[in-house]
Amino acid sequence: MSSPRVVIAGGGMVGVSLALALERQVPSMDITLVEAFPLVPPDPGFEASYTPSFDARSTALSYGSCLLYEGWNLWPAVGSRAQPIDTIHVSERGRFGSTLMKASEYRWPALGFVVENAWLGNRLLQALLAGRVTTVSPAKVESAETGGDRLRLQLDNGDRLEADLLVVADGAGSALRDSLGIGRREHRYDQQAIIANIAHRRPHQGRAFERFTPRGPLAMLPLAAAGSDARHRSALVWTLPPDTAAELLAAGEQDFLAHLQAEFGYRLGRLETVGERHSYPLALVESEEQVRSGVVVMGNAAHALHPVAGQGFNLALRDVARLADGLAEAVPRGHSPGELEVLLAYREAQAADQAQTTAFSDRLPELFMRPGMALPLLRDLGLFTLDLAPGLKREFVRRTAGISASTEYRDVHP
Ligand SMILES: Cc1cc2nc3c(=O)[nH]c(=O)nc-3n(C[C@H](O)[C@H](O)[C@H](O)COP(=O)(O)OP(=O)(O)OC[C@H]3O[C@@H](n4cnc5c(N)ncnc54)[C@H](O)[C@@H]3O)c2cc1C
Q: Which single residue of 17, 159, 229, 283 has CA 20 to 30 Å from 166?
């Protein structure tokens, strides 16, 4: 009898992480990853081969995500150039009051870690290409036919593959999800996120800044030193109305920095240079179905969130861990990885986490678009009563750190 086979369509942050988790947790499984962009062995130094996931952005990995990578023995590679977040500083433009959350108050080594996506891709792809996962790239999974024991997949390079389980991880605009007749709910925020690396005069000292302005939230995430580059750097994620974002993308460097300095202030000293700028349209996209017999939809294809609270990938990685745990239990007992009961159990186990995290990420940007509403609503969320309400503060930090009450991964030790 042939080994149970999973085919993962999409080698972005989620697809590659799932392939690596399954490789470690389900030794009897045959794993194939299909990616539209070339997955070539990366430069052993730093530059990653480019894919849309491993691009110029940086990702704030929650403490919980780091523990998951640690459990898959990937953290030594990923973490070697990850900047610990010791403090999160939250403020609102034009108002008094700001709040600090410190890792030391929770006796954690860090509230989270910032990694450049290109670095994360470099490290994950190195691990992937050194292991037993079969990679097919550049190629796209175009369609899947059901009927018979296994799914039959058609690739755009003419190849056909059979699978017991197809993981649809091809991103928010997932053509594969659409081709399977799975609908999506979409709510556009009418905002764009500008991302860029900023060099600044003062050291960041492990501080991440979340600043709420009437036009949208602005985050500065501390970056680790990059090789011989001794500059102090942070990664900017600046959410703006589309017309303002377009103007700022087209602005000259000094003009851009002047606008940013006016909005952000001098907490990092003078802002000196800005790297390449990119922008992303923001929308909440949710798949109407996540599991059906032989199919699971994951990552941005399942739920793409507003980046304000840095939750999208962290949530997706908790999904990855939960699915890998479920398959590690079911497959050795003779269950097919595509069995509906196995996939429904995964879906049910993650439903509360997904619903809460999606609502949390969806609510924050909406409320900051309403002038005068931010402070009262921040109070509701516990941000400005943190010292008075330690329970609320703990809940907020647990959620941003990815250690929500509904997550069991607190017990994984680095
Ligand atoms: C500005 C910004 C900042 C963010 N910051 C954070 C953060 O700090 N923390 C956090 O947790 N999250 C963050 N996120 C969210 C995070 O980026 C996403 O959760 C993550 O990229 C989702 O990865 P994915 O692999 O599901 O999808 P994608 O990144 O879209 O990857 C999909 C992959 O599938 C491939 N593909 C497409 N079609 C096919 C096909 N038919 N067959 C095979 N391959 C295919 C594509 O080439 C691509 O490589 C941020 C998002 C944005 C926009």
A: 283
